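Researcher: Go.
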Amino acid sequence: MDQPKFTKIDVQDSELSFMKDGERKTFPRVDLPDSFMEWLIAGRSALYDLLEGKGTAPWHAAHLPVVVTQDLTAPIPFNTGNKGVGVLPFEDRIDEYADNLKEVLEGTRGAPGKETLPTRLAAVRKPLEAGHISNKSLITLEIFERNTYRNLCEYPVASLHYTGEGPVFMSFQIDAVVEILTPEHPAYRFAFLSRQLFEYDPFHITQIHFPYAYLFHPVAVRDKTPKRRA
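Model: Structure:
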């Protein structure tokens, strides 16, 4: 079967670029700000605490941004969708943490979910508690290969819009160049194993096919948290 023709992303320390219609598009590479990372990590930690105590999860704002891609064939050239977007460990620790996830997955397979939940939660908490979460990128798994996939193959940029709960309504727009990853990539492997640990828990719609992952490389961050007027 022919491999899809993904746009090659040139990832450098300070910039990202790709070719489009014979022209090189270049973007500055930025780190995710501390305020965003602290909110993101606090939200995940709170979710894990809730799951350990009650076994279910509410809407998880820090995990489900609206992802906007460009549909250059449509009269209004945008496509939107809520995606489960996760964090990654530091690049030099991804394999280590992925190996740990795989070990826990294999060790808990077939056992009752309620019995194994603390062990599984401990595995995904490890990089958070060690302070090993990267501020260089975010990741999600592709399931359906429909509009978002088609758009990113055509033009690999996206905006992620996060909005938290009240009364603060923390909000961020993350503009990113998007790299499409296949299963042999370490970041795909980490994201896939993280999902597999909880695939059959009641807060997920069970899926069995994840052909690709999207690695979001931030190029601009806008804090859109509303401010009260004096």
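Model: The longest strand covers residues 212-223.
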